[in-house]
């Protein structure tokens, strides 16, 4: 059963932001000691539904679009024309920028010298030549370790092969002895 709506009470649509502003402006006294007797409980669900119901401009989906709005030729043509004008303006601005940069490179002097702060940092920083010289000992040790590691890996592989050969030889000898003794 739906509540009977009287024609003299017309629902007024209320924006959520307006309601929040009103609530923010209310004092604690207004909230605590307000007179609730003037609220008609029959109208509360209808008012709540009206405030929560999305409006056309707030939510738009495929299901609530009118065909008249889609096929309205004047609106689409205006939007397309405005888009074309904006695109042409942006294209012209880009072309002007590129031409300005290309022509301005002849007038600009390019400096590859560091500024004072950068030069001070370079002067106070570590010396690259000393770093390379001190790293030579480490590099030589690393190269020697790699060579020795390769030799050790080769020796280990040879040991594994020799172990397998010796084991297989022992197994074969045991099998031959057992076969010879059975006859």
From TrEMBL:
GO terms for biological process: mitotic chromosome movement towards spindle pole; mitotic metaphase chromosome alignment; regulation of cell cycle. It comes from the Eukaryota. GO terms for cellular component: MIS12/MIND type complex; Ndc80 complex. This is GM13064. It comes from Drosophila sechellia (Fruit fly). The gene is Dsec\GM13064.
């Amino acid at each position: 059963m739906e509540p009977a709506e009287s024609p003299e009470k017309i629902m007024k649509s209320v924006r959520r932001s307006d309601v929040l502003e009103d609530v923010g402006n209310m004092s604690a006294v207004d909230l605590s000691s307000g007179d609730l007797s003037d609220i008609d409980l029959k109208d509360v669900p209808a008012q709540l539904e009206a405030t929560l119901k999305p409006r056309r401009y707030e939510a738009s989906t495929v299901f609530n679009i009118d065909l008249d709005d889609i096929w309205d030729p004047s609106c689409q043509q205006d939007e397309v024309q405005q888009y074309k004008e904006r695109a042409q303006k942006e294209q012209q601005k880009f072309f002007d920028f590129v031409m300005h940069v290309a022509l301005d490179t002849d007038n600009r002097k390019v400096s590859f010298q560091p500024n004072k702060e950068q030069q001070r940092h370079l002067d106070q920083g570590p010396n690259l030549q000393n770093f390379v010289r001190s790293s030579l000992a480490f590099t030589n040790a690393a190269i020697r370790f790699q060579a020795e590691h390769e030799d050790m890996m080769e020796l280990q592989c040879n040991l594994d092969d020799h172990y397998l050969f010796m084991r297989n030889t022992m197994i074969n000898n045991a099998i031959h002895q057992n076969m010879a003794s059975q006859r």
